[in-house]
């Protein structure tokens, strides 16, 4: 497979890829130019709509299905349509997306369509009990659906340590020292996919000795870009380490964890952010990710790419052709 961007007609990032109806559908962020000052709060990531893309084959042409959802149509949103994901259940398609509400607090919304490419009709309010960014949906083989989410710094996860929003912790800050790292969150979804079925929980990530990954362990602690997939009966939770720029993963026996850290999938790419998804299509597995090479390294102008991944006999992941 080539290392070229899949889409060159616009900047796209945070690709959530799914095999729906015999095709690959990609649900990315739609990056755009902005004159907003760059900062570590991510204000320059000022996206206003989503396009959906599909491919009949991993090397085939990419179809742009046009605007699937835009900010003006979502009553509760003030700005920043960040990394989305999609799911299907009960014959319908659901687009989950984070955005700032009118108070500037990130919440997660859901929008519904009869077809995988949309357009999607947004619910009038964010999902009750939702907060922070980067929703990743996962429908298990038994039909139970889950939403994983969370993101540090601009993503505001550190503002929710006490359970209510603490604005004084906004911006590029997080716990440090001899304390466990902040954890991503998971919520079980109701059968209609529009609400959390019960309280959102922390998703435990531990090392090989069963000890929590610590706050100062920036090579391994969760930062953002949650993703869940299942391979050979095991649950794989993968994520970005943010300021150390790795995509890493942990495995477990339940979609609710605990998860044991396993290793890296992707080394740092051109640009600050790294964000991915993992999907099986036509008996092969692919990592969708982004980098900023097409824009010459501008961190908020990214492009989606794909690489094949393989598993060894123990279920460890590596990029195809890398070992
Ligand atoms: O695209 C905006 C933000 O950048 C995403 O929500 C993060 O995961 C990072 O990729």
TrEMBL record:
- Please indicate which residues carry the site annotation Important for catalytic activity, responsible for pKa modulation of the active site Glu and correct orientation of both the proton donor and substrate: 134
Which one Pfam family would you cite for this protein? Glyco_hydro_43
Species whose genome carries this gene: Pseudogymnoascus verrucosus
GO terms of molecular function? hydrolase activity, hydrolyzing O-glycosyl compounds
Q: Which SUPFAM superfamilies match?
A: Arabinanase/levansucrase/invertase
Keywords carried by this UniProt record? Carbohydrate metabolism, Glycosidase, Hydrolase
Q: Which family does it belong to?
A: Belongs to the glycosyl hydrolase 43 family.
According to its UniProt entry, the protein's GO biological process terms are: carbohydrate metabolic process
Q: Which domain of life is it from?
A: Eukaryota
Q: What is this protein called?
A: Xylosidase/arabinosidase
The record's annotation in CDD domains points to:
GH43_CoXyl43_like
